Fold each of these.
Amino acid sequence: MLIAFTGILGLTIGSFLNVVIHRVPLMLEQEFKHECALLIQDKVEPPPRPSYNLMVPRSACPHCGHTITALENIPVISWLMLKGKCSQCRAPISARYPIIELATSIISAGLAWQFGLSIDLLAALCLVWFLIALIMIDADTYLLPDNLTLPLLWLGLLFNSLNTFTSLHSAVYGAMAGYIMLWSVYWLFKLATGKEGMGYGDFKLLAALGAWFGWTMLPVIVLLSSLAGAVIGIIMVLGQKRGWNKPMPFGPYLGVAGILALCYGQDLNKLLYGFN
């Protein structure tokens, strides 16, 4: 029953994550434009902004503006019933939406099976839901928003104050070390080449993962994410989908490595260090 309930909950959360993935970058853009308007108008209040956040306005078709009804917003089922098209203009609806909903559901159910009814399960679900949103936002926009990475870091410290995945001491050191590791790589690369090799959001995401898993897990996470990024990058270049000089977001690989560390952390630690 717990696994089934968590899987259904995962479908609902996955639907909400689709909203987060789409709207958070637009909300940041709107906020940036508003701040620029204030500066340009020399502190004269610009026209009021229309409300746009995770709750309003209601979801609508980007092609015809048709407001999505409750029956058209049932995770996965509505997409199948509509055959992947808007009910009004018949414009295609990306298959990515049900895929994210299904992936969130399957991973959530798997965590319920692994952790059972416990504080560990609540923590694991929070972590994975944040990571799914961050993975997709970074893949789309090359952004890792502070309003997601920073709460994720604080949540890691909060849960580990109860020794959920590691001790609080290890979590604090992990957050510090995670930030410093990629910050150092960033500056070494910039001094050597004069170019910026990664964004500041990557520092904060690794710091958040350090807060969740402690400093001992950081080498595993960096190794997994670097290997995955290198392999996928080479495949994409050979497939002529991108050039060698085109930037590639690192956040998705950090996020996937974080999920692997959550599920297989003890085995990965044993493989790297020889102990659990």
Amino acid sequence: MILNETQIAPALRQRISAEQAFHYRIVPIDHTDKGLLCKTDNTALESLMSELEIVLDTPVLLEPCAEEELQKLLTANYRQQDTLRKDDLHYSTDFLEQLLTNAKGMGSSDIHFEPYEKRCRVRFRLDGKLIEQHSIALEEYPTIVNKIKIKADLDISEKRLPQDGRITLQAGTDEFDIRVSSLPTLHGEKLVLRILSKDATLIDLDGLGFSEDELVLYREGLRRPSGIILISGPTGSGKTTTLYATLKELNTAEENILTLEDPIEYTLEGINQVQLKESIGLDFARTLKTFLRQDPNIIMIGEIRDVDTANIAIRAAQTGHLVLSTIHTNSAWGTISRLIDMGVPSFLIASTLNSSIAQRLVRKLCPHCKRENVLEPGELPLGLNLPRTLKTHFKAVGCNACHHTGYSGRKAIYEILPMTKALMGAIKNNQLHIDDYIKERGIRTLRTNALHLVATGVTSIEEVYPLLSDTL
């Protein structure tokens, strides 16, 4: 069944693999009493039908179609795995292991297993968006859940409480982890598998999305021997990647670097990384106290979650250490307000904070199919005001190159608030609004950078609307 012009139902799509679809030039569009109906641009229908019936072990019907139409169906529903060879992961051919192979090869960051009343679906998160990939029969779902829990060293008899575990896999010379989280729901256990690559060799500050001026500001804060640098943003905004790129740049033979993480997403030689284990008492506050006795130069804390962690981080910065961490706030100034709300004295924030950085990830328009349009006021989302100088904008279209999503890849945008004497004074005086200060200093906010990406055709208004609406 074709759901729209290009998308076919997941239960139908999973009848054949991506490798089979591209190799035989077929796309399944229906399953009838007579067999699996597939579209194809292959002209040798009889021989192809015979071979497919042997390979797929089911009767096959073929419907001829134009090459252009078939290519559109192929790229919209299947992704070719260029980054992983078939023999890279030493798996058997069962569904679960093939699924993990496909997700890793497609560049998926998360896999969601979700049970419902009549079926279970599997979704991949690609470029920040969830896309349904498979449908699982209800009777098969418990077996798959148990297999994942066994691999993650979880208790298969415990179905009433959430659990967390980890699976380590080897792909050639690349080792990566899969973090497993189980959650009891109305119709069974929902599982989320986060794919964590341990390879940090490709992470670099220069390639993250900083403008030249922003990178200079950021590195100025890093050059100070002590103080705190905080990176804020919602889950999935790339904060951890920015932290690892920063650590990679600071990692020298002269520095003693300690990190406390949950989980450890990348491994960096030369850096002492500690995995949080709250179940045995290895929490943020306790470990940070020990860190201060380990003669560190630089401390990285995965996330400031509470006032105890914040206070210890402030104390570490006061005693001559450079501290890097993340926090969940909407803006660079919001980070400072959040610390004050936590109960951290404003004079300590002013004296220890080097820089406050906010960041987001936005999807980039596909360069092959994006289309420029005249900006019509009536087509703008309700309540969104854009600069009068913005006369045109680009829209997502969709083509074979972007799998008909209209987007290809993501880009980070930043807002950097460096510490100055004027800002220190505003913090000490608990000044809540610094809009005039930001305008006077020419600081590029998240909104400014988002609008720049829209104006230059890098992304669309629809993609940055959630970010722009936060500042209305």
Amino acid sequence: MKVLCVDGGGIRGLIPALVLAEIEQRTGRRIAELVDLVAGTSTGGIVACGLTRPGPDGRPLYSAQELADIYVEEGPRIFHRSLLKRIFSVGGWIDERYEDDGLNSALARYLGDAKLSDAVTDVFVTAYDISGRFAFFFRSARARDDPAYDFPLVQVGRATAAAPSYFEPTEVTDVAGTRTYPLIDGGVYAVNPSMCAFADVAAAGRVGELELMLSLGTASTRAPTRTSRRARGASWNGPARCWTWSSTA
């Protein structure tokens, strides 16, 4: 079993998307065909949904490079703030910094009417219920077995991207119409979804099948020094068989 985990990080989701695009170029295969589970938080959750959305032929619709292009093309519209928004939000102090029109439009355009249960490879995406105050996980494996846990991918992407102070919380309703959940970004407890994904694999009794867990970060800013302004390559984390990748600004 091979697991891919992608961190949250807003527009910096472009970074792991480009790393994944390079992997696809070298292997000649789509990421969803190389792994058994894609886990993501926030922007990483959107990447997970995009990588696993099925096309008309049943294969992944988008390449990682096409997802990277989405960040370049849609990013300025998603993170656009009008003068009125800047004034009435007081720079994000009393209201969310951004309207969600651009985000909603991009999600609708690229995720369409696909559902969580349609994912070509298992998906695990984090969110948080602000009413019940519990961690909420979108799981495609559970969605295929029970419509009460199935959701449109558009709603999955919108929920996991609802970062407090950036975008408004959102309400999602399962396709069976049994319950509505008020959700925000899972980054409030798991910017890196690796341990959550591992716990899910363990709960399913599949730890013995785990061959590889690849965790991709979205980079961080550090004080410039002679040695810190360089890219850090992949690192092997011992017997846990977990590869991590990050970079410095």
